[in-house]
Automatic annotation (TrEMBL):
<dbReference type="InterPro" id="IPR005467">
    <property type="entry name" value="His_kinase_dom"/>
</dbReference>
<dbReference type="Pfam" id="PF02518">
    <property type="entry name" value="HATPase_c"/>
</dbReference>
<keyword id="KW-0418">Kinase</keyword>
<dbReference type="InterPro" id="IPR003594">
    <property type="entry name" value="HATPase_dom"/>
</dbReference>
<dbReference type="Pfam" id="PF18092">
    <property type="entry name" value="DraK_HK_N"/>
</dbReference>
<keyword id="KW-0812">Transmembrane</keyword>
<keyword id="KW-1133">Transmembrane helix</keyword>
<dbReference type="InterPro" id="IPR003661">
    <property type="entry name" value="HisK_dim/P_dom"/>
</dbReference>
<dbReference type="Pfam" id="PF00512">
    <property type="entry name" value="HisKA"/>
</dbReference>
<feature type="transmembrane region" description="Helical">
    <location>
        <begin position="126"/>
        <end position="148"/>
    </location>
</feature>
<keyword id="KW-0378">Hydrolase</keyword>
<dbReference type="InterPro" id="IPR003660">
    <property type="entry name" value="HAMP_dom"/>
</dbReference>
<keyword id="KW-0904">Protein phosphatase</keyword>
<keyword id="KW-0547">Nucleotide-binding</keyword>
<keyword id="KW-0460">Magnesium</keyword>
<keyword id="KW-0472">Membrane</keyword>
<keyword id="KW-0808">Transferase</keyword>
């Protein structure tokens, strides 16, 4: 491409120089010759006047004065009379290099002025050499501009090709390079927007994988506990049956979580909200987490209003409660109290423990991703808040020390949207 730009620019410059230089050279040649001719004619007329004046004054023509005054000219003067007067001043140039202009009066005086054409030709050549020099300079400038322009065009194109190749290899960082050329800058902007979109897609894919692993861990933990209880009570058929049924429930819950994650990945989480019996859901959570708390020497307590119903999805509400209980088990202390209550516009499930609570500097950021004060993943609470929002509710930290979280749910019969809001989970 650079070679084509150079050759095309040089061709255009040569054509331009020829179209302008040749007519200019011809015009300069004619102008100099016409100027020399007019000068000779002027000298001839001036001499004619001088000779006429000398004849009127009955004075002879001073040849020495004429030779001094017109040293580079050859002058011939012819005056009628008896005898006729002929005066010649200067050296006659060769016939081939001779330029002559004359003048004649009514009194019979004839003056011819000649000069050597060599000086005129020398001046013409000097101007032609100047024109050629300017043409060469113009061509050099054109070549230089072509080189600069070709670099200005080809280097950005090479850079854009590298950016596109890097984008194709998975490096989705926007380059933010601009080149001062509108068309190339537009291509660079498109590539940067594409890089941003690809980067967002990759980030969402990584986020989904992280969220999926975290959300699957909770039902798997519950299933593991059930299986451990089965193994520990191998000699007691009643307990084995009870724990086996609980393990089946955990497996069904794990399947539901996987289905929900797949629907979220396809952006199809548009499930209808339903009426959820909170007593059944909370009793199930206590059955699942009771053994883990007992092994840790801690107690679970359920207080508050019974028989409450809320709008949402059973899987989403269970995930939120399970996350809060898991956080209390790992990071809290003492008895964990789950309190249910009905307020004017919402159903509230509060989970509180008797531990040291959340540090003051961490409390405002507790729902941010990857924020954790004790080495955990920092994903549980952000995912729980997203699930709460997806069910049309919200999850808030109501007290930092000791920690207490409140899960606000929609009441049955609440006016508004019936569809669950698609959250970022």
């Amino acid at each position: 491409m650079r070679r084509r730009l150079l050759s095309s620019t040089l061709l255009v410059a040569v054509i331009g120089v020829l179209l302008l230089g040749i007519p200019l050279g011809v015009a300069v040649n004619r102008l100099i010759e016409e100027e020399a001719t007019q000068e000779l004619s002027s000298h001839a007329k001036s001499l004619l006047g001088e000779v006429e004046y000398a004849r009127i004054q009955d004075q002879p023509v001073d040849e020495q004065q004429l030779e001094r005054k017109y040293s580079d000219l050859y002058i011939q003067i012819y005056a009628k009379g008896t005898p006729p007067q002929v005066i010649t001043v200067g050296t006659e140039p060769p016939e081939s290099q001779k330029m002559t202009e004359d003048a004649q009066s009514e009194n019979g005086v004839y003056v011819a002025v000649s000069r050597d054409k060599t000086g005129v030709e020398r001046e013409v050549r000097a101007w032609l050499f100047l024109i050629l020099g300017l043409a060469a300079a113009a061509l050099a400038v054109a070549v230089g501009l072509a080189i600069v322009q070709s670099r200005r065009l080809t280097l950005p194109l090479s850079d854009l090709a590298m950016i596109a190749e890097r984008l194709g290899s998975g490096d989705a960082r926007p380059s933010k390079h601009r080149y001062g050329i509108q068309e190339l800058d537009r291509v660079a902007e498109v590539l940067d927007r594409s890089a941003t979109r690809i980067s967002d897609l990759l980030a969402r894919e990584r986020e989904f994988a992280t969220d999926a692993s975290h959300q699957l861990r909770t039902p798997l933990t519950g299933l593991t506990m059930r299986l451990e209880e089965i193994v520990a009570a191998a000699d007691e058929p009643g307990i084995v049956k009870e724990e086996g049924e609980a393990a089946i429930v955990q497996a069904e819950r794990l399947t539901a979580v996987i289905d929900e994650l797949l629907a979220t990945a396809r952006r199809q989480r548009q499930a209808q909200s339903e009426i959820v019996e909170l007593d059944v859901l909370l009793d199930q959570q206590f059955i699942e987490w009771g053994p883990a708390f007992r092994r840790a020497g801690r107690r679970l307590s359920l207080v508050g209003t019974r028989g409450l119903q809320a709008l949402g999805t059973g899987g989403g509400i269970s995930q939120v409660i399970s996350t809060l209980l898991e956080n209390s088990l790992e990071h809290g202390g003492g008895t964990v109290t789950v309190t249910t209550s009905a307020r004017d516009r919402s159903i509230v499930i509060e989970v509180a423990d008797q531990g040291s609570g959340i540090p003051d500097e961490l409390a405002p950021r507790v729902f941010e991703r990857n924020v954790s004060g004790r080495g955990s993943t920092g994903l549980g609470l952000p995912l729980a808040r997203a699930l709460a929002a997806a069910d049309g509710g919200r999850l808030e930290l109501v007290r930092a020390r000791p920690a207490a979280f409140a899960f606000f749910l929609r009441q049955v019969g609440e006016p508004g949207r019936n569809r669950v809001v698609r959250g970022p989970a």
